[in-house]
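Quick note —
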Amino acid sequence: MSGDAQEPPHAVRVREVGPRDGFQNEPEVIATERKVELIDALARTGLRRLEATSFVRPDVIPQLADAAEVLARIDVPAEVSISVLIPNERGLDAALAVLADVPAARGGAFDEVNVFLSASETHNRKNINRSIAESLKGLESVLARARAEGLRCEAVISTSFGCPYEGYVPARAVLDIAARLRDAGAQEIGFGDTTGMANPRQVQEFFASAAPELGGEVELTAHFHNTRGQGLANVLAALQVGVSSFESSFGELGGCPVPPGATGNIATEDLVSMLQEMGIETGVDLSALLACARRVQEILGRPLGSHTLVAGPVRWQEG
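Predicted structure written out below.
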């Protein structure tokens, strides 16, 4: 495998995206009460970053129409950072209105916003009906306004490792988008393998070049899907070139609304289990995380794809 492989980091940061990325892809609408229950439980597993919901049009994604109510009702420890996904300025307006209304007992309803676009024109148009140029122009305004409100900003670039419609996506195009988002105020850039097309060599080469090009001031985050069973292999490849920030979804929930067959994110419990087996700190209580995955499986009434949920954690060290 090419790239300047190195010793993996001693610790990683994990953002749990199941309450947004996972729930929005479920065919049914999960009751607000159950969402609040699960977010509160996830916030007590040792996870320090949670993406709770998104301010999208309710007629487009009815599964997240209760975003304001969820944020008003959750009760998470002060050390847990809550983020929301923002598609455009209208979404930011709605989010800021909630932030103004929610008591600041725990520092406000959320303290981070995530914006997004795709690295391929076709996927971007099918997903949000805009060109990449139109998306970038709009997101530059969103990022400027969010930073002015004191919010931390992440920008996620979907289809960073391949597009189901266009196929190959040049790394150069992805990095150019990332640089523009960084310059607009994004403090973290997430690179999404939206339909699970990445392979470990590609991942390692990409992040080996992304880090020096984008500079040390911006956090680089990997967001892998397990559509073709390569999610954790891609995590390992990213670790070997110094990536220490990952996004994942408990129970392996999630996917992509377009196209069909784009199954879930890597499971948070599978990620945490592997990292802990490797001696890499996550700060997460795996047993508590598995309890959350079992609970969402119970709520949905169907088995989920998480391997650790089925097999249980490896306990050979305890002997």
